[in-house]
């Protein structure tokens, strides 16, 4: 595995020991701070140089028309883009009239550290200005987990080699000029100057800007207050214009005599509330932050994170990089979700504008699994957001001629924004993914109120969708035609196994949960006939299987398509979608990302061990992993089928997606789903954790099948289950299940029932792992960390 | 059948007896004049009112960017739009200072007649100006078939109730303001002010404008000269500006003393030649026209058309409307193609800007069949245009990762302009359609030079395409995956039967023609191995068939899709593509236009009579005819399967597509393919004419199977076959084959060999027609002229 040489490997932080302007935008993503409500990219305090300046508020976006050279019925007319809101991070510095811009002068030292336990981004720099004066700059920044509207910065500057007159300009800046992005069609277009000024204010140490978006009419307010500590010469003034509000502090400094500024920033936004209301809201939040003080915010941040780590930490022995990466991942996933409060979790969190700030199915299928077991309150919040968009989803279903609800493939506010229907509208599986997230949340938390309320609403409307989308054939088999599964190199196919099995789960669960809550079911108009129709469709669901190959078909006919000519595909032609037409990808056996393999992870009880091994061996050489969503799922099935070395390699790929910028687009924001995939690979792969689904289709038991790759000597992870805190501690020889809190828990260890209590941990021996020969990947697509193709092939032949 | 009450039914002309401003744009399309090089819509001489002003030159277009909200590899970046060039038709009239605008004053009489034998559009009007003066206006207009660059107008005005001072302004106008079109996504966006002025000139009676298009850099010149006849008071002046050049003639007239203007207009354009060269070209063409004179142009026009009708006329007894419609159709198809000279034949000819002026597969599959048997020189010209675009088609194939050539789904200059790949790029059948047009042309004309030259080039490159597009499965069956057939309500399917059978023909023919011309084949790099690979693929071509239903599948699995819920589809929801999403149409049994049924027309020898009857009965209730390309093909198979009443109804639909504006878009131009379909329905349907394909895949004999519907007492048609002129005269009791010119001809009459000579016509008896019960159409989609559904159903049950 590769890491950037300026990043060090440490267990509890991400440390960058020098500033590399070539990867500045990437570093801004990995050093981004967020609480799920506010997002601040890791831009340098001085504002410039920057890769992509970014301050985001979850849910603040602008609309834009979606152009079509040839339009069609049901194509969404409006796109949505998360916008860069007022930047409250900027603290510019002048040293004897030279602006501190690290591109000029001489940078003697520069270090940034993101501490996963304190939730603070710290920076120290030593810089000689073009005028020859050297200063030491220290800053600390946080976006508060406990005060949702608040972020804060401590900025300190001190000359080291003689006196200096410094000016520090602490700003709120709106409508920053953004770099123009182009190239990869997946990189979203940025929206220029999205904010219309409504109010600007600057007085004493207080700043405020209020703006409104033009088309979505969202009012966005930012306020700041400051504490200034410096020598007696220190003075300040404040001034404001429509797009900038600024506190300018000047001081004559000598070595040993720093100037220190504490900046408290608060954000608020609303599509409903008045200017005075939003204005007061941010002023109040700032005042509260000032009252708490910097130290108070830091202490609360640490408390919040201590509680999180206590229930969520994953310890990895034997690979320090993976240890660091999984904590980096957990920290960023938490940041994406912590205080979203009935808003979406975007694919990039609030770390960048990639994918336009949209949420996709990866939230429910990759991010929520981790959060369900570690921070379940965030899951309820995300699913409440989905529930809040039910009216839009019902309207979309109606527009498409379907029953129930059709959730959008990509969205910010709940309206479909996907402009390419074969990989958007046709990817109906997102509806079952949401239903599965409901089931997972309810099973793991036991939150019956949610199940009876939002949960049942979501299950019923998605079940209705499936029943209207599919149909029975002359033999009574239930088919779902014309849909696209997870693999985006196949589209608009019949009976995608992943989709069909997830729909089956959705139909069964809706029927069962409705039966458990008859009064609410009646409110929703679900009668016995409807529930029976759901159960019948589920029972007769088509699951295509190629008998002569003895493998399941990703979708009907897939195994008879022509194989992609991998041998003739040069390495620079990946990702394939940038170099080959969809028509060619769709009609061949080539897979962007785990699809049938993902079905085996999500519905493990519907495949025998033999089938899992066969299928994994068949699909592995066809899967190119042009999606960051693939490696972690492959890791899970590689582990389950005994290919532990391969699982470990895939774990590495998922874990280092952003730290190593494997897809060359971390600049646009972090791959939150792939980060969550690090946890999936460890817990689902080496922990073998599954939710066992009973015959009723409702998950009712937790099972584990731990096994470690040679490289790892121990993996310990923690999960929260219905008020219990369970620690699973895996070593090569045995696994220990340890309950630190809560009632006794029954679980399965490699199929054997085990009950653990707080008094008695269970020590279980590890069965021997057997596996067939390791499957090959498409040429040139081996994950890092395995022997290259040649050796591998030779080894396989021996 | 319905006709507009102001149109009369006459055998040799289209006459409109009053002006109806509500259908002005439609009338401009049906009264359009063209010679395949110049197209003038039937706009009123005075320019306004108009529906859509239009003057077009075949091949003159502008490019525009194609927008994609989500772009993809291989998507065309540039669109092309036929532009409205300099309008040479305008002759404005002022009567005592009142502009003659028929929306004002009082229109006492207005008649327009398009004479199919003279090729002249004549108009008489009697109009009382708002000032109270009544004038008689007479005009005649032609676009010359014999002088390709020339059009001419005679315009005469005379007061009828007292003296009048009149001014007549004869103009060349560029960059006319066009009405803004929107709504149906299929209606193309117009291009505003596409012409950049280069030169303007007006002197004595001569006018000239030269412009250039901005992005395509095509230089367009128009020139005019005039003859003026009037009383001694008559005088004139000429003046010009960049976008208008004008001759103004004034005269004081009294009843009995008309003012007469003859206007000769010439057009020229080039992407290569200089301003002086193009300028001289149009001046020369005008001078030649003046020298020929109006009467000379009229006489030559008549001669040209006499020769055409002698070899092409279709006589129909028993239905005067069909008689008129088929001549209207033949006339307009000739106009679209006559002097195109190595340019495309657009879907709307040069009658309007519908489909952006693009050519599609309908040219080869609908228009060329008619022309091959009646005006074969135009077919060679069109195919030479395709040949000229081979480099672009080869480049497109390379871009798509295929061998050979991939011709564009829609284009003006040979570059792909289709922005929706499932119904564009994926419709690969166009390549086989072009190959089939080559075979048809060569068989019917015996043009061996063409076969050896352009023909073989086209066959080889298209065969190479098919070989690379398809693949053999484990059992050795050759499949073509991921393509779209003619039916645009199905897309991206496996083994579309139409596509596969046409590809089979293409592969076989390429192999056979290459074998016949070994030297040229060697030049093209075709060796025995390649030819064998083509023959092998053809021999093992998949042709999906549902054994339990005993019908062929339009594409693999089609017969197992869910049937469209026709009963729940209200009449106003047709065409379906404007009211339902593609995803829903694609996954159901619902057919926009003949597809499998078309395969049975194009490859009649590959289906038994029993199969044809079964298939027709199966697909008929699924076919909604949302495309104007459907009815004529259904007519042919209805006739073949003995459903003569139904065939007759479909003939009517094809024939009256534009005269009755059945698709409500005749305003945008005529449906040239549906017009040609009138001939296909009569000749292929009631004449039962087919080209029999030998085992070698190359058509080698003409066969007929005449049969008449009750309503018709006689159908007579003429075809040119290898220098022979054959007349087929069908009455209810027998068919007479009569050779008026050329060597003896062998043919088949209902399967029996017959030889006809110029001396001895063959009289053949008609066999009895038997048929199963008439198949039903989807509810509400019965063609006009049949009993309504209810009666029909009741009748079928008896």
TrEMBL record, chains A, B:
Entry keywords, A to Z: Glycosidase, Hydrolase
Source organism of the structure: Streptomyces yokosukanensis
SUPFAM superfamilies tied to this protein: Galactose mutarotase-like, Six-hairpin glycosidases
Domain Glycoside hydrolase family 65 C-terminal: 700-756
InterPro entries the record matches: 6-hairpin_glycosidase_sf (IPR008928), 6hp_glycosidase-like_sf (IPR012341), Gal_mutarotase_sf_dom (IPR011013), GH65_N (IPR037018), Glyco_hydro_65_C (IPR005194), Glyco_hydro_65_M (IPR005195), Glyco_hydro_65_N (IPR005196), Malt_Pase/Glycosyl_Hdrlase (IPR017045)
GO terms for MF: carbohydrate binding; glycosyltransferase activity; hydrolase activity, hydrolyzing O-glycosyl compounds
Signal peptide: none
Protein name (database record): Glycosyl hydrolase
Region of interest called Disordered, as start-end residue ranges on this chain: 751-798
